[in-house]
Amino acid sequence: MYCLCLRPFAGGLPSLKAAANQPIVCYVTDGKSLNPAVAGGGTPKIPENIRRAVEAGVNWVQIREKDLPARELLELARQAVQMAAGRGEGNLAPARIIINDRLDVALVAGAHGVHLRHESLAAGDVRRWCRAGHAPADFAIGVSCHSLEEARKAESAKADYIFFGPIFETPSKMSFGAPQGLLKLTEVCRAVPDIRVIAIGGVNAENSASCIRAGAAGIAAIRMFRESGHSKEIHDAVAFIHDLGAQEGFR
Q1: pLDDT, tens digit, for every residue of 143-192?
Q2: Which CATH number is associated with domain 24-245?
Q3: What's the angle, vertex CA 196, arms to CA 34 and CA 6, rounded to 5?
Q4: In sequence order, what are the beta bridge partners of 162?
Q5: pLDDT tens-place string over residues 116-157
Q6: Are 212 and 248 in contact (CB under 8 A)?
Q7: Model confidence, pTM
């Protein structure tokens, strides 16, 4: 029988509130969007992309591999946690590794949070279970939201953050209909002041400033990282977004 045994949590991270002195930059993995010629037909390219993003200074990595079997997902998550912890040995704080949907895999891998979809377990139930001593105190619980009503429900459930979008047009979010746009992002950020709103969907270095001005606590992206030709491009994009904190009076 295959046993998922809990491993010690990868600690040493500042709390979400303490770490909020600059916009959050989150790399969202998506192995299905990789060119098969480069992806090798499986997951070999994903750890390399995670490594490049972590070295570039991203705050979070969300592992969003919905089609991976549990064992492969667990191995990928463990690799990512090790990469994130290794960065903490340098000048940068460790990155947070967040697992899409699979709370069990997140806990076993020693990851730093779980991201819940509309079809996932209810955020309130997950939070109560985690805060009852089943997860570290700083284990983050996030929720994907596509409407103001969903954002308010996530805030009421005391989720730590939400992904709201799509803000701009993007192939990966076409199933959710027309882009939400910056006005809706502004409305949501003002309506849920007690929760961090991360803008997602077509966000890149060029349009990230408008998301921060709208009130977002940060941005999450797939294509921005996938389309960067090399590590320096990723590093420059991440640094640019972090610098927006000072330019936009971020707090």
Answers
A1: 999 999 999 999 999 999 999 999 999 876 676 678 999 999 999 999 99
A2: 3.20.20.70
A3: 65
A4: 143, 197
A5: 998 999 999 999 999 999 999 999 999 999 999 999 999 999
A6: yes
A7: 0.88
